[in-house]
Amino acid sequence: MPVQFPPIILASKSPRRQELLTLMGLNFKVELKDVDESYPDGLSPAEIAVYISEKKAKAFTGDGEIVITADTIVALNNEILGKPTDRGHAQEMLKKLSGSKHVVFTGVTIFKGDKVHSFYDRTEVLCKAVTSEEIDFYIDNYQPFDKAGSYGIQDWWGIVVVERIEGSYTNVMGLPTEKLYNELLKFI
């Protein structure tokens, strides 16, 4: 039988993160706080993911429950591809990803009271070349506006366009579950 973790607060509106915690068998509730996701210049993509995750954690006062926050960054040649602002921005990002390799970083922070632990995971993703028509089809049918890099590994883009990944699949979804489980075991 897996370890029984105490109740957890997931500070994320991401349905993918919520689904992953459910699949992990964790007892959690979702609580959201508005957080400015800006970051200082000069940070690496991994440092940005952890910085924003920690910033999200600091928005909580912590009343005895474990809180998990996360932030996912898509980086192509050190250019950060965040969530698209509109259709044109999504098209631009997906054209950049077409036929190239990028890296996905997810920073995760676990905290309870004054105990804080942060880590990140890194996954390389190789995409085949796609046409403008395929990009438009994807945007029209999958509305990737809430996703870093403008795509979801668990939908059409991941099924048809992603040729290979090196690293954690769930990290690309937004939460490196295997690593999170191990870090939670050490945390409690």
- Along the chain, the helix and strand elements come as EHEHEEHEEHHEHH
Mean pLDDT: 93
Low-confidence stretches: none
Rg to the nearest angstrom? Answer: 17 Å
Number of strands: 7
User: What form results from the Cα inertia axes?
Assistant: globular
DSSP summary: helix tally: 7
Helix content: 25-40%
Terminus-to-terminus distance: 17 Å
Largest sheet: 7 strands, mixed
| Secondary-structure-derived class | alpha/beta
Strand content: 25-35%
In short, what is this structure?
The protein is an alpha/beta fold. It contains seven helices and seven strands, in the order βαβαββαββααβαα. The protein is globular and about 50 Å long.
Characterization of this structure:
It contains 7 helices and 7 strands. Helices cover 36% and strands 27% of the residues. The protein is globular and about 50 Å long. By secondary structure, it is α/β, with parallel strands linked by helices. α3 packs across α4. The protein has helices at residues 15-23, 45-58, 87-97, 132-142, 156-161, 169-173, 177-187; strands at residues 8-10, 28-30, 66-76, 79-81, 101-112, 115-127, 162-166.
